Amino acid sequence: MNRRILVVDDSEVTRAILARTLRRAGFEVLEARDGAEGAMAALREQPAVVVTDLEMPTMDGFPLLRLLKADPASTHIPVLILTSHGEAASRYWSLRTGADAYLTKDFQPAELLAVVSRLAEQAAAAPPPALAAGAADLQAMGPIEVLARVARHLDASLLQATVVNALLEQGMAADDFHDAARGALATLSQVVDAQLLAVAVAEMHSAMAQVFLQDPIHPSAIEALNDRLARALDLPADTPLETRIAGERGDVTVDLERAVWLPLPLREAIGVLAFLPRDGNEPALATTSPIEALTGHLALVLDNARLSQRLQELSTVDGLTMQLNHRVIYDRLTEELERARRYQVPLSVVLCDLDHFKQVNDSHGHLAGDAVLREAAAVLRRCLRSTDILGRYGGEEFLAVLPQVDLDAAGVAAERLRQGLENHRVRLPGGGEVRITASFGAASRDELSGTPSSDHLVSLADHRLYEAKAAGRNCVRP
Question: Are residues 449 and 330 in the same domain?
Answer without folding.
Answer: yes
